[in-house]
Structure formats: C-alpha cells, structure tokens
UniProtKB/TrEMBL annotation:
Residue ranges annotated for the Aminotransferase class I/classII large domain, each copy included: 22-352
Cofactor: pyridoxal 5'-phosphate
The organism's taxonomic lineage, starting at the top: Bacteria, Bacillati, Bacillota, Clostridia, Peptostreptococcales
InterPro entries in the cross-refs: Aminotransferase_I/II_large, PyrdxlP-dep_Trfase, PyrdxlP-dep_Trfase_major, PyrdxlP-dep_Trfase_small
SUPFAM superfamilies cross-referenced by the UniProt entry: PLP-dependent transferases (SSF53383)
Organism (species): Peptacetobacter hominis
Annotated protein name in UniProt: Aminotransferase class I/II-fold pyridoxal phosphate-dependent enzyme
Length: 357
C-alpha cells in the first residue's frame, strides 16, 4: 500500500521485528469486529461454487443491496471495489472542471488528473470544526460553473457529513453532477446521512459504496454505485467486464447485506467505542478532537510539542500505528487520525497517548 493509504504492515513488521498480526492498526478504517459469520460459513461450506460462473445479471446480489439501501434495484451498478466505480464514473462524465471538498481521499484527484480535468478545492475550515455550509458550497459551484462536485460523506479524514436532505438540496440547486462516496456512511445514522434513496429522484447524483470498511471485506473487492440516469448506467456498464464480480464476492454480498444481526451488532459496538474514544481523547489536554460521523476521529496536537509523524514513531514500538495526516491536502504536520478498534485496543491507545503527550 502507498503512504497515502495507511500503514504497510509488512514493512513495519520487518523493521521492528513484530509479526504484522501483533500491530494494533489505528490507521486502517476497517471494521475490527470482522465480517459476517453467516456469509463466511456459507462460503466455507460451498467451496464447490468456484467451479461455476456467477450469474451475469447478479439478480440476487442486487436484490440484497436494494433491500439494504432502500433504493431501486434497477439503479445499482456493481464494481470491483469502490475505486473502480470512482474511476469509471469520472471517465464517463468527463467533467471539464470539478470541485473537491478538501481535505479528502487522494484517489479523486488522481482520477480527475487522468482526464485533464480542471480541479478546484473547497476547503473545510478548521475554525468551524471542518463543517461545510451547503448553501455556501452551492454558491461556489454556481459562480464557478463547475460540472462535477466530489463529496466524501462522511468525509475522510475530518468526519464531517452532509445529511441526505442537504445532498438533495445541493443537487437540486446546481447543474453539476454530484459524486458522493459513502464508504463510511454505515458508521453513521444511515436514515439521516445516506443519499442512497435520493438517487431514485435526483438523476445527476451518483452514490458509491464499497464493502471493505463496514463489512470488513477488502479482500473480495465488491463495490456498488447508485444512479437513476440511464445514460450513465449504460456508459459505465459498457466498460465493465462480464462477470466482473467473482462468485465468492457475489454470494458473500447476497448474505451479508441482509444479515441484520451482524449489521446491528457492528453499529452498536462501533458507536459505543467511538463515544468512548472521543471522550477519552478529549481528556488529553494537548490534543484537539473534531466531531466525527465515521469510524475514525481526526486529532491535532495543539501545543506543537511534536509532529504527528514523531508521535507515530513513538507509538510503533508499542505495536500501535496511527495515521499521520500531513499527506491530506489542507492539513499540516500536527494532525493525526485514529480509527476505532476493539475496546481493549482503544484503551491501550489512550494509555500510550496519555503517557507520551
């Protein structure tokens, strides 16, 4: 993995002499409680399926996603992870100019540069706790006549999120395409923040989700996009290979999207541990904490007694890895991000941070 996408556990384990499994990786935004047991058990008991082709229409998988998202089944586009859909959508829309909400994930800029798109940035302000006013954003888009708005919702790394009604308002108040990356929306209240159902009525809205983070399945490479624009769907599907989702990913998706016990348990545990981490981090006097709707919390070393990179190095011998956020555009060397892990790991993090800071 590149430096922009978290820690390379293989390199760190060689350098420090730890097994990669010993590290508590607070730089990785993946659900620490693992994937759906029902889905895993089904796969392990039906391995003969690898000798079959997947359903080319993925009917049952789309039915599960539709039920999970509360969206029209016909509006679902499947992809090999969210990244493939980000690339496919940007290539299809081919915008002349795009507005990126920053700080944000670097992959958006990378894909826009491939098509020589003019890139503008709307910087969320630290003094506002990185909250963004929807009407101010609309004015910026309309005044600059941008053809695409890219929104990570909740935003990585700040944790800010627009409500679905705000996303709808932005869509109805501009002529721009809106790409909403909802990679982390399941860690928030979906009934408030998810724009999945909004895609049924807003045809210039494209919502992207993956299964790597909430469902803890980065290895199966399963993502999906939602759009009610038939032209966009047709154009994207033209460039996607037949059977682009392998049968294991397809079957896991069919089960885990409707595994209510797994979903409810994950939401409960992650919400509880986020509350704990936010409270505990807030008690460290030299650290400022920013509200978050994701499964991570952005922090800043207020007294500048050390940089985030220096703090990261001090934590690694304790088998703890945090995310130095200096590589995010708009954040300086004193910002770091921690993800929510299991209770015992979260408490060890607080203990070490308190001792160091």
């Amino acid at each position: 993995m590149s430096v922009n996408h978290g820690a390379n556990l293989y390199q760190l384990s060689q350098k420090y002499g730890f097994s990669k499994d010993e590290f508590m990786d607070f730089s990785s935004n993946i659900n620490p409680f693992g994937s759906s047991e029902k889905a895993r058990n089904y796969i392990s008991e039906h391995m003969d399926m690898v000798s079959m082709y997947p359903d080319p229409e993925y009917i049952e998988l789309k039915q599960s996603i539709s039920k999970y998202c509360g969206c029209n089944e016909d509006n679902i586009i499947l992809g090999s992870g969210a990244t493939e859909l980000i690339s496919s959508f940007i290539e299809t829309v081919n915008p002349e100019s795009a507005l990126l909400l920053s700080p944000a994930y670097s992959e958006y800029e990378k894909e826009l540069k491939k098509i020589n798109c003019s890139i503008d940035r709307y910087y969320a302000k630290e003094e506002n706790n990185f909250k963004v006013d929807a009407d101010d954003l609309i004015n910026r888009v309309n005044s600059m006549n941008h053809s695409l708005i890219v929104i990570c919702n909740p935003c990585n790394p700040t944790g800010f999120a627009f409500t679905s009604s705000e996303i709808k308002h932005i869509s109805e108040s501009t002529n721009a395409w809106i790409m909403v990356d909802e990679t982390y929306v399941e860690f928030a209240d979906k009934s408030i923040f998810s724009s999945a159902s909004v895609t049924d009525s807003c045809n210039r809205l494209f919502v992207i989700r993956g299964t790597s983070k909430f469902f803890s399945t980065p290895g199966i490479r399963l993502g999906y996009g939602l759009s009610s624009d038939s032209g966009i769907k047709y154009s994207i599907l033209k460039h996607i290979d037949l059977w682009n989702i392998n049968i294991i990913a397809s079957k896991m998706g069919e089960i885990m999207f409707v595994d209510d016990e797994f979903i409810d348990s994950t939401v409960k545990h992650m919400s509880s541990e986020r509350d704990y981490l936010f409270s505990a981090l807030s008690s460290i006097e030299s650290v400022k904490i920013y509200p978050s709707y994701g499964n991570f919390i952005l922090c800043r070393i207020k007294d500048k007694s050390m940089t985030a990179a220096e703090l990261r190095e001090k934590l690694i011998p304790h088998k703890i890895i945090i995310r130095d956020c200096n590589s995010f555009d708009g954040l300086d060397e004193y910002y770091f991000r921690v993800c929510i892990l299991k209770p015992e790991e979260n408490r060890l993090l607080i203990k070490q941070l308190s001792e160091i800071l």
